[in-house]
Amino acid sequence: MGKTKVSATVMFHEQIASDVYSLYLQVGEMAKEAVPGQFVSIYCKEGSRLLPRPISICEALPDKGQLRVVYRVVGAGTKEFSKLHAGAEVEVMGPLGNGFPLDACEKDKTAVLIGGGIGIPPLLELAKQLPCKTTVVVGYRNADAFLWEELEEAADRVVIASDDGSIGIKGTVLDAMEAEGVTGDCIFSCGPTPMLRGVKQWAFEKQIPAWISMEEKMACGIGACLACVCESKEIDSHSKVKNKRICKDGPVFFAEEVEL
Q1: pTM for the model
Q2: Local confidence band at 250 (pLDDT 50, 70, 90 cut-offs)
Q3: CA 193 from centre of chain
């Protein structure tokens, strides 16, 4: 599966929560290659911002040749993207990285999909493509939530947590899982490192295999610059140290492969 750089057309773009935007891009054949958990790199037009911004794939629409990304405005690059309008052209490279293993959970099993913040969008396509039953657990800061209604359509069960208790159960995703008695046969998770650390420990204690997608600032997006490394248990053949390149070797890892 090779990466491709294309000039993509903005098909639809809207704000769906505070500083969170949903963007549909016409990318052609790239949409057929995308796997849940992968990401694309989107290039800014402003010349002073040379490096692309990595954004996870929320949905793949191969019949239309489109990819959907959902992103949060966190800096100058994503602020520029928030101004894009239908018909605009933007350079996109992808699909990049390794996605979630769709064959990890058999048809008669249940997968638990756990997401926090901007780690939630990749779970939508994952819930659609997994062959097994799915329970989605998502955590928000407050009631300014996004995608949960679409997740309810895609998954068999959705459990919601929020920091302030204004939507769902007050507390973390793990608090919500305990309150609702959530369990399963495998785990897929994406979100901030503290959440992933908790999910990894929970999975270890329950002896459930887990795969995690790590959020990290990236530079090249293709594994050449070593700007986005995490500590691994094994020596990496590229860097010769106990590192994994999140953009190239990940962003999805078997949880026991990496240190958090």
Answers
A1: 0.90
A2: low
A3: 13
